[in-house]
Input
Amino acid sequence: MSMQITSLTKSYGVDLILENITMNISDNEKVGLIGANGAGKTTLLRIISGELGYDSGSIYTPKDSTIGFLKQNAIEDSPNTMWEEVMSIFADVTSLEKEMRQLELKMSDESLSESEHSAVLDAYSKASAMFESKGGFEIQTRIKTVLGGMGFDSFDVKNTKVRTLSGGEKTKFAFAKLLLKNPEVLLLDEPTNHLDFKTMQWLESYLKSYKGMIIAVSHDRYFLDSLCDTIYEIERNRATKYPGNYSAYLDTKQKNYEIALKHYEAQQEDIKKLEDYVARNKARASTAKMAKSKQKALNRVELLEKPVLMNKACSFEFEFEYPSYKDVIICENMKLNVNSGGILKTIAEGIDIDIKRGEKVAVIGANGVGKSTLLKTLVGINTTYEGSFEFGRNVELSFYDQEQKLLHEDSTVLDEIWNRFPRMDESQVRTLLGTVLFTDEDVYKKVSKLSGGERARLMMLVIMMEKSNTLLLDEPTNHLDLSSKEALDTAVRDFEGTVILVSHDRYFLNKTVDRILELTPTGITSYTGNYNDYLEYRNSNAQEEAQRELKPVLSGAEEYEQQKRRQANIKNLTKKIAAAEEKISETEKRLDDLQAQIADAGSDYGKVSELYETSEKCEKELDDLYELWNTLSIELESCQ
Output
C-alpha cells in the first residue's frame, strides 16, 4: 500500500499556497511535514483527508483504506461517558459478540434437532472467526493500553462524562479515539500539544510500531527525530524530500546548501572571467571574433539561483554587561502555593535549589506541579510562597513569560522597544526589530494584534536588550517556527551567563541544558546532564527496580538451565557482534571509495549530487551498524 501525490497545486484566490507538490509515501512509512508558519502544511493535510479541494494534480490512496485526521485543536465533546464513546468505535464487533452470546444460548437448547444444532454451531463458528479477525478478543486490552498511555489511567472512564473533561483532556481523548479506530493513514497536526513528557514518550513508542502510514505536522523536533524516517519540507510552495529523521534533515540540508553554494560561486567566477574577456577583447580586431564567441557562450549560460539555507529566521544573541558572583540562586525548604477560590492551595513543597554561575538548568515535572509558578516566584510575580530564597551578588534577572503579559498591549511594536530604551534613535530600534523579523510597516502593529509567534519574538528581543547575566525562560520555544527554534538553541547554548528554564521541548533541552531539576509535589531532584541523560537514568533505575521486585528464587535445576541459556545467548551475541564488525569494515571502505569519487568529480554537479546521495545512504547504514554493534555489546556485557 502506498499513497501517491502528483503535481498537486492549491491557491486561495491569487495567493499560491502549494505548487507542484509530489510525494510518494509507502506503507508503514512515518513522515514528518515541516516548514515555516503559513507554508501550507495544515492545508496539505486537509487536502489529503478530503476535507479541502485542490486546483490541479492528483492524490491516489489505496482502495478501501481509511484516513484518520487529528486536527491541531481537536475537541471531543459528547454527553456520553468516556467508556460509551470508545465502545461506539467497536459497535460492529460488540454486535458480533452479542450474536455469539445468543448462539451460545441456542446451543444449550436440548430441544434442537441434530441438523438445527449443527446449523447453530456453524453460525457460531463463523461469528467467532469474524469476531477474532476484527480483534474482538483484544478490544479491552487495546482500550486500556491507549487510554492509559494517553494519561487517562486514573480516570473512572465508565462514569466520567466527556463534556466534563478540560479542553486539553478533550483534545487528548479525541486523539485516543483516533488511535483506537486504527486507520490505515494517520494524519496528525501538532500531535504532542497538551501532552506531558510521560505521555509523549508513550505516544512515540506506540506510533513507531503503528501498522500504517503516518504524516505528522509538528514543531516538536524530538518527536520528529524519534518517529520519522522521512522528512518533507514545504518551502516556497514546493515540497522537498529528505530521507531520515529531523537531525538527518538538518545535516543533509546544510550539506546540500554548501554544494549548491560552491556551484553557484564557481559559475559566478566563470561568468566574471568571460565578461572580463569580452570587455577587454571585443574592440580589438585580432580578438573580436573570439570575444564574440565568448559572448555567445555567456548568453547560453543557464544561470543558477543563489541558494538560500533556510526560511528567514530570527537572529538571537544574549549578552551581559557584567558577570554575577559564583552563587546565583539558593532556595531552602520552599513551599509553592496558589490561590484557588480564595483559598491557598499547596502545589509543591520541600524545594531546595542551589544554582551556580554559568549553569543551564531546566525545571521539568508534571503539568500543574508548579514549574511556571517557581519561576514567577523567583522574579517576584508570585508572592504566595513559604520558605526562603536569595540571589547572589551582582545577579541581574530577565524573565521570559510564556504568556507575554509583560508586554504593553496598547503599544506599537516600535514603541514597545523605544519606550523601554529611549536613548536609542529610531533607525537603531528598527535595525534591532529587523533581527527578529519585524520590518517595514510591521513595526507599527499594535502588540494586542500580534500573533503568538510575533509576541514571542518581540519579548525575546526585550530580553536580549536588557543584557542581564541570568535568564529565566518559561516555555521560550512555544510559538516559534523550526528555524527560529534552531536559532534560539544556539543563542542559549552560547550564552555565558546563567539560564533557568521551563520547557516541554525535549530537543531544546538536549541542546541547551547541563542539569535537569525534576519538580514533584514533595520536592525537587537534580540530575546532571541533558534530557536524554535524565531519561536514561530514570529508565535504568526503573528497570533495576523492576528486576529486584520480580527476581525469583531459583532451584538448582532452574539455575542450571538459566546458566545454559545465558551461555547460549553469549555465544549468539558474540557471533552477531563479529558479523556487525565485518559489515562495518565493508561499509567504511565503501564510504571511503565514494568520498574519493566525490573529490574526483570536481564541478560535475549532477554526478556530485548522485554520489553525495549514495554517500548519505552509506553513512546512514554505517550509523545503523554502529548502533547495532553498540546495542549488542551492551547486551553481551550484561550477560557476562
In short: The chain is about 50% helix and 20% strand. Residues 556-601 form the longest helix (46 residues). The first strand starts at residue 2 and ends at 12. The radius of gyration is 31 Å.
